[in-house]
Amino acid sequence: MSRRRPAAAGILALASACHLTPLGNSIQVGQESYVVFAGDGVEGAGDLYLVRSDGGEVFPLTYTRLEERLPALDPSGVQVAFARARRPEGAAYRVVVMNLLNGAERVLLDSVAVPTGIAWEADGTAVFVRIGDRVIRASPPPSEPDPQPVSAGEAPSADSALGTVLGDPPFAMVVPCDSAGLCLRLGDGTMHPLDPAVDEAARWGADSMAYVVGSRIEVRALGPGVLRTLNLSRAPPHPRELSVFLAGAAVARGQ
User: What is the pLDDT of residues 31-67, one digit of tens each?
Assistant: First the structure.
C-alpha cells in the first residue's frame, strides 16, 4: 500500500478549536462517525488506520515498524488506546493513549506481556487491559499514575467493557462458540452462530454489529434491516480489530 504522507507529517501541530486531526483534517474528531482498526503496515508490522463510517478512503494513523494492535476508542471519540510492541520482536508491549486532536501520546503501561484486550471504562476515565487471566485498570496521568489490578467490585464493568455487548439495554454478547467461530449469546443463554468468516466483532450502535470480511467491513443489524457493506479504498492487508465511534450515539463500547 502506498502512503500519501511521510511519517513526519503524520502528526501535525493542530488547532483543536477547528477540530483538526493528526490526519490533516480528514476526519472531524469527536464530531464525525468513524472506525479505527489495525492492519499490516511498514514491513508487515501492525499499524493503525481510520475510515469513515460509510467506508471509502482509509487513512493511516500510525507509521511505525513496531507491532500496534487492539485499538480502543474512548466514548468521546477523541482518544484511542492501543498496544505497541517495545521492540520489533514484540515480546513486551506498552499500552499507549493517543489524543486524536493533536497526536500527543501518553504511556499507561510501559512493559507488559502481550495484551489480549483493551477497552475504556464507560465514563472514559480509565482503560481496562487484559493480560492473560489478569485485568489491569489504568488511568491516563495525572489522575492515577500507578495502574492497579481490577478489584472484585470493578470486575463486572471490566467484563462488559472488554466484551462485545450488543443491544441497548444489553440483550446479547458476542462470544466464542463451543466448537469454532463466534456466536451470539442471548440473555436466556442460547447460542446462535455467526457467519463462519467472522472471527471478531465490534458493537455498532444500539442494535447492530460490525466485522471484517476480506478487505471490507460489514454491518449487520440484529433485527429488521439490511446488511451494510463498507468498502475500503486503499485498505491495508489484513484489516482487523475494529473500534467504532458513532457521533451522537450514547453507546457502551467494548472490544
Answer: 899 999 999 987 888 999 999 999 999 999 998 889 9
End-to-end Cα distance, the chain? 27
Dump pLDDT digits (tens) for 175-193: 888 888 888 898 899 998 8
Amino acid occupying residue 176: P
- Are 239 and 38 in contact, with CB atoms under 8 Å apart? yes
The torsion angle over the Cα atoms of residues 144, 32, 60 and 70, rounded to 10 degrees, is 40
Fold designation for 7-245: Neuraminidase (2.120.10)
Q: Give the residue-averaged pLDDT of 216-230.
A: 88
- Bridge-based pairing of strands 228-233 and 56-57 is parallel
Spatial separation of the C-alpha atoms in residues 73 and 81, rounded to whole Å: 6
Inter-residue contact 217 to 210 (CB < 8 Å) = yes
Spatial CB neighbours of 234, under 8 Å, sequence gap ≥ 6: 1, 2, 57, 58
Q: For cell 507488559, what's the residue?
A: 112
2 vs 44, residue with greater confidence:
44
Among 212, 162, 208, CA closest to 184: 208
Task: Domain ranges for the chain, please list them.
Answer: 7-245
Q: For residue 174, which of 213, 208, 150 has the smallest C-alpha distance?
A: 208
Between CA 85 and CA 246 the distance in angstroms is: 29
pLDDT of residue 8: 34
DSSP reduced 3-state for 159: helix
